[in-house]
Design a protein that fits this description.
Length: 171
C-alpha cells in the first residue's frame, strides 16, 4: 500500500492543489454556496368544512326536486341537526388559542352551546369553553372567579345543583 501512495504522490498532490484552488477561488470572489431564497406568500386560501346542501333537501344549484330555484336559506334548527356542532369545535383544534374558543362559545345560543363538544352552558345561562370535566377557565379575564354550580355539556347536566326536570338526570 505504501508503494501505491509513493508512486501516485504526484497525482495526489495535483488533486489537492486543484481542490484548494477551487476553494480559494470561491472564497476570493465571494461565492455563497448556502444561499437562502426568500419565500414570498402569494395567496392565503381559507377552506371551510360545511355540510353539503343536499342533506337539507336542495341540490347544489339551489333547486328543489321540481326544478324551481329557491334561495339557499337554512333555518337555525337545520344548523344544529347537521354536524356543525363538531365543525365549530374542530375549527379551534391545533390553534392553541383556548381564549378565542372561550370568546366564540360565549356567542352561541344556549341550545347550541349545550350540544357542542367544546363548550358548556354554565348555570344555565353562560356559554364557556369546557368539557364534561367543567369549564376550561376558572377565572374571568379580569381575574375574578367563575362560580359554576352546574353546567350542561352535550345536553346532560353536571354538578350538585342541577335543576331537576322530568326526564332529566343528574350526573
Amino acid at each position: 500500500m505504501d508503494d501505491t501512495i509513493i508512486t501516485n504522490i504526484f497525482y495526489i498532490g495535483i488533486v489537492v492543489l486543484i481542490l484548494t484552488g477551487i476553494l480559494l477561488f470561491l472564497h476570493i470572489f465571494h461565492f455563497n454556496l448556502n444561499e437562502h431564497v426568500n419565500k414570498k406568500l402569494l395567496q392565503v386560501v381559507t377552506i371551510e368544512s360545511l355540510k353539503n346542501i343536499n342533506e337539507v333537501g336542495q341540490n347544489e344549484v339551489g333547486q328543489n326536486e321540481v326544478g324551481q330555484e329557491e334561495p339557499l336559506l337554512l333555518e337555525p334548527k337545520d344548523f344544529i341537526n347537521t354536524d356543525l356542532e363538531k365543525d365549530f369545535c374542530s375549527g379551534f383544534k391545533g390553534s392553541g388559542s383556548t381564549q378565542k374558543l372561550n370568546e366564540s362559545c360565549g356567542q352561541l345560543t344556549n341550545s347550541n352551546c349545550s350540544t357542542t363538544s367544546c363548550c358548556i352552558l354554565a348555570n344555565g345561562n353562560r356559554c364557556l369553553a369546557g368539557s364534561a370535566s367543567g369549564p376550561t377557565f376558572l377565572t374571568n379575564t379580569d381575574g375574578s372567579n367563575i362560580n359554576v354550580d352546574y353546567y350542561y355539556y352535550q345536553g346532560k347536566c353536571y354538578g350538585s345543583k342541577c335543576p331537576t326536570l322530568s326526564g332529566e338526570s343528574k350526573v
